[in-house]
Task: inverse folding
């Protein structure tokens, strides 16, 4: 958050490198014909660059099929990058293997979208939280117990004694999600990847879960990658935000800049489509770009949003791929509208 | 005074209990609301408050363990609760009241072509022959914006938005008086969700029909709402005009619910509601929200009456007595 920006910069300057660096990352899945013939690639992530400092939260916004899950899985070390690299805490994912890869994974926490699906139904909360500690070699039983107690108190699942022997189905959705967060935090990771952590929850609990996450972020100097399709929760959570469309980042900015002054036509459309509770909404028809996101096997040439874009410029947007234009400090947009010459060669 | 639309559906004191080993679950407990032509009533509530059971109770799609099921449902001038099973099936279900089920995009039959699937209700409920029914299906698919060449495709070949539109066409093909939409957009992307909402706004005026929208998403519900009913623990705690509801909710629960919605365009810190909704097995006596209510006082231990606040708003709370 902005009030502890000073600290963040200090800690991140220790070794001069950001905590997480994504460099020109490509994740392509091969399509097979009849099980062996090559039939092209699904370009799920296609040239993504960004970096994340210690203690910073960044939100990744996009619709289903835009590549955000592939990006997340690659960061977690579950996918192998096709091209480019992920550098986390000075470990490069492309060269890490075996035991090192296991260590790499233990330094990143993962909060799943559906808490009930993410918790094993036949294990009680104590066993669920003890498992990662055992696997990662915390052999002292007393230490394990004290760490479990500490983290449960942090996620406000109290009284701890009552929660420990319970099974996931005995908890409400919000409590289950807190167990998932506790499990993600128990190895004291430096980075937490939260994949739509509140989308399955009721409105009244959402805010509570977001607050717990933010508190953890501040008290542990934790970096968070918050993946969501819901723009309205982003305002309460992250410093930076980027919008993905068809495997690429189309806009990257500080949270306020993006929400209050969106530049890319796609970001505009997303904001236009999200509503605040207001009775006037019933009276208007919203402007929605026609069509659907493109196939990632053969993405459109030039800008990938051009077939749906209301500001489409013929001969430019469908021909040349837009580079990132810096419209203001740390506000990048991949759109020809922000080129001085509107994409025309000088 | 503006002319009010004709009253289509009037629900009075509707109850639906389920028998379980632990005793009766009071899923719908004395629900009242009205629905007018070309309007939409939104039923808002958290999971487990009985809103989907309410939809089932109106359509009489009862599971085997349904226990007490009574009250009045007036469709125009007819109390459809008095009809027997067979008459209800022949005259009401899908012909006059239809439904888009929850996760409608997965509710389509995977081995039937979209065209046949949309035509089926017309054949069964309207006694149309194949040709007429296909014509009606084509007309309705055009109406909801599904391209005609999708007629011969299967549901898995369609995107989520198109599947949702097809499910909507299936509910509308018999031109019913009332369509119940159970969480119609919750599984969809933001842009698709907004275009489906655009479509439903249009349908509401173009067709002679009324919508009941069941949702937990307050922000999206405001896109369609003419009237709002807030459900809590099986009961409607507040019902009334949407315009005034969104600016000034009455019941403390409605207040808390509105305050919990994160806003996109304003900087307001949202608040959460502490505690959990009560079990519907043995709901607390008196007001069911009292344990979580910030404005609780002595009176709350007694069952609150439903009070007419203003002309067309009702609230079930002792604060307004």
Result:
């Amino acid at each position: 958050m902005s009030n502890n920006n000073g600290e963040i910069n200090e800690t991140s300057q220790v070794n001069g490198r950001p905590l997480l660096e994504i460099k020109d990352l490509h994740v392509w899945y091969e399509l097979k014909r009849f099980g062996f013939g090559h039939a092209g690639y699904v370009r799920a992530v296609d040239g993504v660059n960004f970096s994340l400092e210690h203690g910073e939260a960044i939100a990744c916004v996009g619709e289903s099929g835009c590549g955000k899950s592939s990006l997340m899985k690659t960061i977690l070390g579950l996918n192998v990058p096709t091209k480019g690299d992920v550098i986390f805490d000075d470990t490069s994912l492309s060269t890490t293997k075996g035991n090192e890869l296991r260590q790499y994974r233990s330094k990143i926490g993962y909060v799943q979208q559906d808490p009930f699906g993410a918790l094993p139904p036949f294990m009680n909360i104590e066993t669920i939280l003890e498992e990662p500690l055992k696997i990662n070699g915390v052999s002292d039983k007393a230490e394990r117990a004290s760490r479990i107690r500490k983290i449960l108190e942090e996620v406000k699942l109290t009284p701890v004694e009552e929660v420990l022997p319970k099974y996931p189905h005995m908890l409400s959705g919000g409590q289950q999600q807190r167990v998932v967060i506790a499990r993600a935090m128990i190895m004291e990771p430096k980075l937490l990847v939260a994949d739509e952590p509140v989308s399955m929850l009721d409105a009244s609990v959402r805010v509570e879960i977001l607050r717990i996450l933010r508190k953890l972020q501040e008290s542990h100097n934790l970096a968070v990658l918050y993946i969501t399709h819901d723009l309205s929760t982003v305002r309460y959570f992250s410093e930076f935000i980027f919008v993905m469309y068809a495997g690429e980042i189309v806009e990257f900015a500080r949270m306020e800049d993006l929400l209050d002054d969106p530049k890319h036509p796609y970001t505009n459309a997303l904001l236009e489509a999200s509503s605040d509770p207001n009775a006037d909404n019933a009276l208007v028809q919203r402007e929605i770009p026609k069509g659907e996101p493109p196939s990632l096997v053969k993405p459109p040439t030039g800008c990938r949003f051009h077939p749906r874009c209301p500001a489409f410029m013929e001969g430019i947007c469908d021909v040349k791929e837009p580079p990132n234009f810096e419209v203001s400090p740390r506000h990048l947009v991949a759109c020809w509208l922000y080129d001085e010459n509107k994409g025309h060669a000088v | 005074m503006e002319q009010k639309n004709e009253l289509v559906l009037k629900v009075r004191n509707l109850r639906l209990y389920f028998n379980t080993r632990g005793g009766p679950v009071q899923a719908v407990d004395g629900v009242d609301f009205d629905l007018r032509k070309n309007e939409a009533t939104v039923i808002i509530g958290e999971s487990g408050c009985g809103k989907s059971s309410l939809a089932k109770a109106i359509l009489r799609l009862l599971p085997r363990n349904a226990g007490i099921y009574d009250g009045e449902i007036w469709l125009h001038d007819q109390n459809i609760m008095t009809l027997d099973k067979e008459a209800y099936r022949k005259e009401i279900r899908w012909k006059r009241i239809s439904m888009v089920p929850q996760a409608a995009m997965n509710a389509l039959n995977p081995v039937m072509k979209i065209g046949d699937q949309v035509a089926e209700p017309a054949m069964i409920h309207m006694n149309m022959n194949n040709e007429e029914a296909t014509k009606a299906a084509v007309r309705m698919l055009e109406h909801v914006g599904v391209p005609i060449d999708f007629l011969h495709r299967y549901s898995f070949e369609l995107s989520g938005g198109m599947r949702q539109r097809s499910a909507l066409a299936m509910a509308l093909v018999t031109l019913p008086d009332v369509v119940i939409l159970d969480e119609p957009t919750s599984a969809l992307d933001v842009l698709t969700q907004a275009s489906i909402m655009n479509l439903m706004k249009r349908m509401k005026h173009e067709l002679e029909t009324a919508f009941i929208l069941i949702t937990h998403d307050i922000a999206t519900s405001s896109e369609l709402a003419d009237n709002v009913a807030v459900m809590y623990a099986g009961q409607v705690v507040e019902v009334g005009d949407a315009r005034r509801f969104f600016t000034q909710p009455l019941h403390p629960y409605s207040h808390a619910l509105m305050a919990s919605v994160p806003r996109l365009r304003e900087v307001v810190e949202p608040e959460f509601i502490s505690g959990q909704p009560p079990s519907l097995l043995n709901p607390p006596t008196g007001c069911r929200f009292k344990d979580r209510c910030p404005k609780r006082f002595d009176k709350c231990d007694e069952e609150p009456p439903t009070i007419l606040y203003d002309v067309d708003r009702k609230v079930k709370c002792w604060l307004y007595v």
User: Anything to note?
Assistant: Chain A is about 30% helix and 25% strand. The radius of gyration of chain A is 21 Å. The longest strand of chain A covers residues 37-52.
